[in-house]
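Appendix B. One record, verbatim.
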Amino acid sequence: MDLQINGKVAIVTGSARGLGAATARKLAEEGAKVVITDILQERAEQTAAALKADGLQAHCIIADITKGAEVQRLVDETLAHFGGIHILVNNAGFPRDRYLVKMTEEDWDLVMEVMLKGAFLATKAVMPTFIEQGWGRIVNISSRAHFGNATQANYSAAKAGLIGMAKALAIEEGRYGVTVNCVAPGFMETEMVQALPTYETIKERAVAAQPLKRVGKPDDIANAVAFLVSEAASFISGEVLHVTGGRYG
């Protein structure tokens, strides 16, 4: 299927590795010009270099998306380098899992700032361009955790917040030809997850709870994002696409 995103410019936050890197590669393979952005400079540069080595169009910009000035620099540099912006994937985020009674204020604030504030700042920064051109695609990477997980009050709240944000903005910005959707991954086999000391236990429990008996792969999320930013999904907005192997609760 031709996704009709050839030549479009996409910013994927948190794309040095994992789901973000896979998503950036998929969009680039479909002909998009992608901006790899992260605070992990070495990994981000390596990811962008790997795409370029494969003949794909990529550019690396190091930025802290919790800071408005850096986000604006990210957008300005993207416009200067590629001449436009059409797609934003709000992917950056990480867990700080603890039972609530042991969760610190820092645990709460860091998760909220990167996922929710970062998505807010990035979306606000690209929106004037989207409105002016009458076309834009935004995908927030939420999680099955929006239903709630023990030890993840902060993470679950942030992921649920991304869904609320998407639904509000779908209503607010639809008149300008902008769609806003979410992808909600289930258990995904990423570097970050595989590095957890309890990885095998988490994996076993997740697969047991899923109708589809395999672990999710980063490409599963990349494919879902690519569909939602494509012309094939041009009449879809304010939706949440669960990529969970059939697991919801």
